[in-house]
Write a structure and sequence with these properties.
Layout: H1 12-27, E1 33-42, E2 48-66, E3 79-95, E4 101-106
Antiparallel strand pairs: 1-2, 2-3, 3-4
C-alpha cells in the first residue's frame, strides 16, 4: 500500500520566520547574539523544513590557525593563537504543510 504525501505548502521564507520566532520565544532575543541563518533545506519527502541558525554563546575559545598551509609531511608550520566567541547551532524542524515546529536539535557545522 503506497502512501501519498502532500507537497509542501509552507514556503522557505515562511519556514525561516516560524523557526526564527520559535527560537526567540524559547531563548529570548538578548541571549541570541549575532543570530544568523546558516542552513535551510526541504526534506526529501517534502514533509519538513530543516532550518539551522547559528549564534554567539558569549564564551571565548582559543583557536589555533596555521599561518601558512602545510607544504608537506613533517614540516613544522607556524601557527597563531586567536580568541573567538564560540558559536552554537540550532536546527528547528518545521512541518511543511501546517508550519508547526516538530523538533529543536543541537547541530554541529
Amino acid at each position: 500500500m503506497s502512501q501519498h504525501t502532500a507537497p509542501a505548502t509552507i514556503g522557505p521564507k515562511e519556514a525561516v520566520l516560524i523557526a526564527h520566532r520559535y527560537l526567540i520565544d524559547l531563548y529570548g532575543l538578548e541571549s541570541l547574539k549575532e543570530l544568523l541563518l546558516e542552513e535551510l533545506e526541504l526534506s526529501e519527502d517534502e514533509m519538513t523544513w530543516e532550518v539551522t541558525f547559528g549564534f554567539d554563546t558569549g564564551r571565548k575559545v582559543e583557536v589555533v590557525e596555521p599561518l601558512i598551509h602545510s607544504l608537506g609531511e613533517n614540516i613544522e608550520v607556524p601557527v597563531k593563537r586567536i580568541t573567538k566567541l564560540e558559536r552554537a547551532f540550532k536546527q528547528i524542524i518545521v512541518h511543511a504543510q501546517d508550519g508547526h515546529v516538530i523538533a529543536l536539535k543541537d547541530r554541529r557545522l
